[in-house]
Amino acid sequence: MNPQISSNPATLATTVAGMDAVADRVRPGVEAGPRGSRRRSALSTRNVVIYGVLSVVAIYYLIPLYVMVVTSLKGMPEIRLGNIFAPPMEITFEPWAKAWASACTGLNCDGLSRGFWNSVRITVPSTILSILIASINGYALANWRFKGGELFFTILIVGAFIPYQVMIYPIVIILREMGIYGTLTGLTIVHTIFGMPILTLLFRNYFASVPEELFKAARVDGAGFWGIYWKIMLPMSLPIFVVALILQVTGIWNDFLFGVVYTRPDTYPMTVQLNNIVNSVQGVKEYNVNMAATILTGLVPLVIYFVSGKLFVRGIAAGAVKG
Amino acid sequence: MTSTTLSTTRPKRPSQLFRNLSAKLASIPMILTALVIFLGGTVWTVVYSFTSSRLLPRLRWAGLEQYERLWATPRWLVSIENLLVYGVLSLIFSFVIGFVLAALMDQKIRFESAFRTIFLYPFALSFVVTGLVWQWLLNPEFGVQNIVREMGWTSFTFDPLYDQSIVIYGILIASLWQGTGLVMCLMLAGLRGIDEDIWKAARVDGIPMWKTYLFIVIPMMRPVFITTLVIVASGIVRVYDLVVAQTSGGPGTASEVPAKYVYDYMFQAQNLGQGFAASTVMLLTVAIVVVPWAYLEFGRRKRV
């Protein structure tokens, strides 16, 4: 579901604005609070039902995280004995160490650390390049309208809905012709391409809301395309850059399909390597190591999520387009 | 007279092309992506789906042969059936659960942001992580089934990942856990967009709350529902990594999905033609959802 909005900038803009209302409920001056009926005494049936249902669902949502952590801290004998929900009798960090440094995927046994560093080497340049290009696109579209610009933009947005599977093979051919199939450069380009629709939309809408007087004043002062971008737009738009950053880092880190298709086994990103470790058919299954590896892989996006809070919500409102 | 017209139009013509030159140059990556990858790539795949390409793409015309073979392959039929079952159920459940949660969250409750954080965190995780966690939770030897049996109900069976007939529900459970938070967030945004006066008026008229939701609020939230529908639906068609991680398509081929069929035929079975035909069918599936929506959205207020 990560699934992927809208070629309709207006809807998107309202949704994003709405998300802000969700994110911080009280905005100065505006009564953006919930619309339900007034709160009554603390223990009314109504409140019991509301908090009861929400709490039960919340527990259900937390169980997988809890089980992951608990399992990863147990030894295998304890796991075989029984209950996945039981807290560990004896806490051990060995599974974590093994998952990080010596779990096996196929031939090499140097653990997830390899995948982690691969993912870092994929995520950093892909994030920078995709944001740079998309922000320039958005800037050109919003502030320097040119003939045909809207047409290309429409193709881009429609393209966001095309299943990746349709475009995968032509890109393989193009990358092979360029001699970068299977390299990190190739994968960086792929991430830049597929991040482009949503990021361009994001930046275009944001830059369009920058007061035109500012832009005109800069032009009168003799600033050109690049001058205005670097000196005015970029510094003014830091929040949207942060949203884009969150969106891209989590999206690229979580990617699996492009990693499988466009890299070689020694440069597989963490998600692919994790899948290979856990679903490898040889050997005895070590569930504690598997869960430690799973947490390790989920840790980067989780930390970003918990730290960024409101901005993440904004990001997914926009990023939902990616599915 | 003629000479002046010439002298004014002549420098003007190149200036049309070179106007905003920097902007145009800066947009080259976007233009290339739009034309070469999104447009060109799609057309290329559709064209090659009518060829008999196997290991390498070849323009050897084969008509509808690949499609005939596709619809005669049991694995593809299973994939489509799974996609239908999974798609319909995950739409229904994520909408119902997402809306109910959003409505509850909208009752001026305390700890709202804590609840939101909890409901949404799975969305930050990748499908691979989601699939692996639920693979572990649904493990018949140690997971939920074992727990219930230990509690005394020894004949209890719930092992979706090892039962061909219900494996797709195991995947559904995992994907609902991952994605319902997003639906809730979008719905909550929609609910917050509804005018307080509507609620006041309904209350004054003595309309019960559930009726207000059902007959006033939900119809008003139509745009939000449609946006959410498009997002969720286009995600459903793409489902891939979740299945790979959780079941690898098994047991047997019971949890295969179209996206996996495409990948396997293109990169493992080296039967490119089949992969192209299957991905073209995926494209058509998305088009069935997206085109009517785009038509409604854009048809209404003309082109920009």
Description:
The complex is a heterodimer of chains A (323) and B (304). Chain A has a domain at 113-322: Orthogonal Bundle (MetI-like fold). Chain A has helices spanning 9-23, 45-72, 76-81, 94-101, 113-143, 149-159, 164-178, 184-208, 212-220, 225-236, 238-254, 257-262, 270-278, 287-308, 310-319. Helices cover 69% and strands 0% of the residues of chain A. Chain A has 323 residues and is mostly helical. In chain A, helix 1 (9-23) packs antiparallel against helix 15 (310-319) and helix 4 crosses helix 14. The longest helix of chain B has 32 residues, at 74-105. Chain B has one domain (66-300): MetI-like fold (Orthogonal Bundle). The two termini of chain B are 39 Å apart. With 304 residues, chain B is mainly alpha-helical. In chain B, 74% of the residues lie in helices and 0% in strands. In chain B, helix 10 packs antiparallel against helix 11. Classes of the chains: A mainly alpha (323), B mainly alpha (304). Chains A and B meet through helix 1, helix 2, helix 5, helix 6 and helix 7 of A and helix 2, helix 3, helix 5, helix 6 and helix 7 of B.
